[in-house]
Amino acid sequence: MDIFEAFQKRHSYRGPFTDSPVHTDDLKRIVSAGLAAPSGCNAQTTEFVIIDDEAIVGQINRMHESNIAMQQGKAYIACVLDKEPKAVYEGLSFAVEDCAAAVENMLLAITALGYASVWVDGWLRKEGRAADIAKMLSVPDTKTIRIILPIGVPAEQRKQPDKKPLEERAFFNKYK
Ligand SMILES: Cc1cc2nc3c(=O)[nH]c(=O)nc-3n(C[C@H](O)[C@H](O)[C@H](O)COP(=O)(O)O)c2cc1C
């Protein structure tokens, strides 16, 4: 799939997945797309836990109250960051931005490979859920899971919501 097609086809999928598995090679390709993302000072701060173990997948499936993709994920990728990320440039850390860049690359790869996912972030940061999943994955206390992606083959066709037109959000040479 052409990258520009992937930009348009990617959408936050919260619907059901088919029974098809997510192949290990595809999981590696998806995470490789994340590894290829830019990072502040090339510090490459985000680490990834690929979750395809049936028992752990089952435990995570049971956690979300409403997001069907989270309830039916066939595999997950958890993005791991230091809780107190080191400064890499003049006292600044870019760990969250690094993670976001990796996640967008992975979402595009997921789309290009015919799977679907959704960027799950806010939900993880409430009610100790990130810590609960971190425990399941033996992530040390000094680190946190900032974003998790459920992955599967979508059982329903959905699409990206409309975005505001270019003229409304982008300007040549002068703001508005
Ligand atoms: C920083 C960030 C946090 C997000 N957190 C969540 C989340 O916790 N749960 C969720 O279902 N979607 C989450 N999303 C997905 C957004 O809701 C989604 O991108 C937005 O509604 C636009 O839809 P689209 O991704 O289909 O274009 C998040 C997206 C971003 C960029």
Protein architecture, described:
The chain has about 180 residues and is α+β, with helices and mostly antiparallel strands. The protein has a single domain, classed as NADH Oxidase. It has helices spanning about 5-10, 25-35, 55-60, 70, 95-110, 130-135, 165-170, and strands at about 45-50, 75-80, 145-150. The longest helix is centred in the middle third of the chain and has 18 residues, at about 95-110. Flavin mononucleotide binds next to loops.
Relevant terms:
176 residues, 7 helices, NADH Oxidase, alpha+beta, binds flavin mononucleotide
**Range of strand content:** 5-15%
CATH superfamily: NADH Oxidase
Instruction: Output the helix-strand order.
Output: HHEHHEHHEH
* Fraction of helical residues: 25-40%
Give the total of domains: 1
Bound molecules: flavin mononucleotide
The Rg value, from CA coordinates, equals 17 Å
Shape category: globular
What are the SSEs and their pairings?
Layout: H1 3-9, H2 24-35, E1 47-51, H3 54-61, H4 68-72, E2 75-82, H5 95-112, H6 129-136, E3 143-151, H7 166-169
Antiparallel strand pairs: 1-2, 2-3
Helix pairs in contact: 1-5, 2-5
Flavin mononucleotide is lined by residues 11-12, 14, 67, 118-123, 160-161.
Short description:
By secondary structure, the protein is of the alpha+beta class. 35% of the residues lie in helices and 12% in strands.
